[in-house]
Amino acid sequence: MQIKILTIGGTIDKVYYDALSDYHIGEPAATELLAQAGVSCQYSIESLLRKDSLEMDAHDRALIRDHIEADTCRHIVITHGTDTMVDTARALQALNDRTIVLTGAMQPARFRDSDAAFNLGGAVALAQTLPAGVYIFMNGRVFNPEHTIKNRAAGQFQVST
Amino acid sequence: MQIKILTIGGTIDKVYYDALSDYHIGEPAATELLAQAGVSCQYSIESLLRKDSLEMDAHDRALIRDHIEADTCRHIVITHGTDTMVDTARALQALNDRTIVLTGAMQPARFRDSDAAFNLGGAVALAQTLPAGVYIFMNGRVFNPEHTIKNRAAGQFQVST
Amino acid sequence: MQIKILTIGGTIDKVYYDALSDYHIGEPAATELLAQAGVSCQYSIESLLRKDSLEMDAHDRALIRDHIEADTCRHIVITHGTDTMVDTARALQALNDRTIVLTGAMQPARFRDSDAAFNLGGAVALAQTLPAGVYIFMNGRVFNPEHTIKNRAAGQFQVST
Amino acid sequence: MQIKILTIGGTIDKVYYDALSDYHIGEPAATELLAQAGVSCQYSIESLLRKDSLEMDAHDRALIRDHIEADTCRHIVITHGTDTMVDTARALQALNDRTIVLTGAMQPARFRDSDAAFNLGGAVALAQTLPAGVYIFMNGRVFNPEHTIKNRAAGQFQVST
After folding, report:
1. B12 closest CA partner among B75, B82, B101, B89
2. Rounded average pLDDT over D40-47
């Protein structure tokens, strides 16, 4: 079984650039995380965008959707900023012939206590086992994008009423 | 949905004790990992044993099985040493009314580049979504214990022929 | 011998706050670093300011100077932002009756590959052994603030011509 | 000023080898630590031995002494196991024409909360600033090997009475 990891940017990939005294989206954190985890199934990582998810628009989401649609891979993990992950997930729900799992991190992967590795492990596992559809894996739970919001104040994803 | 994390020991929980110039099984690494991951579903962590899996015997496996059987929880993650994880998984296959996912780590969780967080994330995700049965999540893959071996030389779990 | 660690802020103490999608100066990183290092000499840590060093002014520097002057401790480490560390060091040179070592970090201490621990170890060692005066320890070198600049593009401290 | 880092082994360099279910002395941790710290002075790292310090004998110590004596470098850091660091330090005291600072770590550098980086930062700083002689930097303090012991139970170096 082949897995495709598509990286879009977001907090998970942020690095600290001292010269600019700021954080920027760096190389995909997934590369090192999957290597460290000794992942043995076939996979490839592709950096499609390097955007803060607050800066994403419908055009970006269409780009992601078209890119996936043109790919034959049926098991896809997307690492993405958390702020608009739900929006991107919803934009992909039309692709109902493959399993797509979106995840990201509340703390950059390069931080000592980041949730990045845990989240990616969950997404990789789910991409191989869930039926076709679009899902979000954050805060240790599997969400249906149709009924999910990110509660920014609480710093977690929740089922929306 | 409630998840029970049962910790048995193994490399994932190993710490380095200088006074003895050696490693020992310490407190469950799962405690910190689940907290760092911001896991928001209900869960409890129980340290049942603190054994190197090479030192486990049929008595230990019966203890684990009886303990799970007596518990009402239907979604269980077991962190365990990797050397005999398959043996313990097989000993639990009689419990066919709940989802049990075994995982561990090739490097202690307290190591900088450990696979522990990734593996635990996968196991937590799978414990909530897989149908009743016993599974192993290692090296980014989901294994059926009936047809799995740990290839020690290669340092990974593989499907046995 | 007693050491006082005075924390002023800067990159070394930066944490990532997701809700604000930004970094902020958090609790002094020195607390955890000194504990992890098993420092056994007597020391105390005091958080005097929590400022990005680009936001510091003459008033802040006077505050630091007066604070140190009022303290009886003769061996002082100051963790500080790197951008204007030289300016603060120069402002303290009038205090010529104690050993003051300034340091900081190019990457937040909470980052996996931070220089924070290394720099703090050097500063703690030097505060106990150097003669009275003001020094900077960065990039593995001991600098005299009178002839030091931070080369932002190169990301390192250098002797100025 | 040139610094030579001579690595002898010890806990600081221990890595976990799963196939052997044990820790072994790996590549010098100093290489990565000095790179991460952005050390800008001239230095070279040489792996002379890879021994647990409990396994070192007079022959090994003579080897280290002769090796240093044959080197022109006047500022030397030695990373070494902590158990017999004092013995090696004493064996080097005859070399009174250069500054030699021994350090190591109570936890392997590859551990998340290791004291390795802090200790190495202190040793690098001291190797450049202390007068000729042999010193130990551990637990945040500078020790004269003549009056130092490692208190194994307490897990720290102390001045001996």
Report:
1. B82
2. 97
